[in-house]
Amino acid sequence: MRHTLRIDDRTLSYLDFGGPGRPLLALHGGMSEGLAFAGLAEVLGDAWRVIAPDQRGHGDSDRAPDYRPDGYVADAVALLDHLGLDAPVAVLGYSLGGFHAYGLAAAHPGRVAALVNVDATVEIDPDTAAGLFAFLPAMRYTAPSREELLAAAGPVGSQFVEHGLRALPDGGGWRLPFHPQDMIDSAEACRGDHWDSWLASTCPALLVHGIRSQSLPPETAEAMVTRRPGTSYAPLDADHFLPFTHPQEFHAAVRTFLAGL
């Protein structure tokens, strides 16, 4: 079911798939939303209660004053507090959400029992970030019709945002499930070296890696697993978008890791 909470005069929307199982906080990637984990919640069944927020500026959640990683992490902590989840929970994050997942584990180790990093790297240089998100400035946030909005989005539209478009109130047209500038700001805020954050936590962890990823080179993935004790590795023959292109393999890797906790 969908719920909301207020954080600093902003609305944070989240999906709680319910069930009697242990809590799993699932943080989606950029340009996505919590609904992306509906399939995972179904596969995990009653063993895990998947809680998937629309992170700030995504989906049904309000836009925020800034998109620094610590702000995203603060929202996650506020959600855990709101739900009364004081005991450590498992946390999964994909891509942008992966930064926030291991950032949460680093900043609040007492809140995280296990960590699943889905193809989020620890090193982002300016050229890589610019290349991955070069299409964003050309996108439109709103348009009178779905067709115009998708046309402006180009190939990204049909692949990632077509099913997430929102109708504006009173027949005022349509909007993307994110503002392009917010995504640019989020990507810019993640540039740099994040090794300290990745290595700061000690809970059991899994790195799910698309071996053809545009974001996480194989040598970096290998170093992430080698340098962080207690980290398992699940390489998939996929690119960075593996939760969408290879959902069965992705779900199986996560389910196997969680079952072994």
What's the quick description here?
37% of the residues lie in helices and 23% in strands. By secondary structure, the protein is an alpha/beta fold.
Layout of helices and strands:
Blueprint (H helix, E strand, L loop, with lengths): L1 E6 L2 E7 L5 E6 L10 H7 L3 E6 L15 H14 L6 E6 L1 H12 L4 E7 L4 E2 L1 H7 L9 E2 L2 H8 L1 H7 L4 E2 L6 E2 L4 H10 L2 E2 L1 H5 L5 E6 L7 H10 L3 E6 L5 H4 L1 H13 L2
Parallel strand pairs: 3-4, 3-5, 5-6, 6-12, 12-13
Antiparallel strand pairs: 1-2, 2-4, 7-11, 8-10, 9-10
Helix pairs in contact: 1-11, 2-3, 5-6
What this model shows, in words?
This protein has 261 residues and is α/β, with parallel strands linked by helices. It has a single domain, classed as Rossmann fold (3-Layer(aba) Sandwich). It has 11 helices and 13 strands. It has helices at 38-44, 69-82, 96-107, 126-132, 146-153, 155-161, 180-189, 195-199, 218-227, 242-245, 247-259, and strands at residues 2-7, 10-16, 22-27, 48-53, 89-94, 112-118, 123-124, 142-143, 166-167, 174-175, 192-193, 205-210, 231-236. An 8-stranded mixed sheet has the order 1-2-4-3-5-6-12-13, sandwiched between helices. Strand 3, helix 1 (38-44) and strand 4 (48-53) form a beta-alpha-beta unit. Helix 2 (69-82) crosses helix 3 and helix 5 crosses helix 6. The longest helix is centred in the N-terminal third of the chain and has 14 residues, at 69-82. It is globular, with a radius of gyration of 17 Å. The protein starts with a strand and ends with a helix.
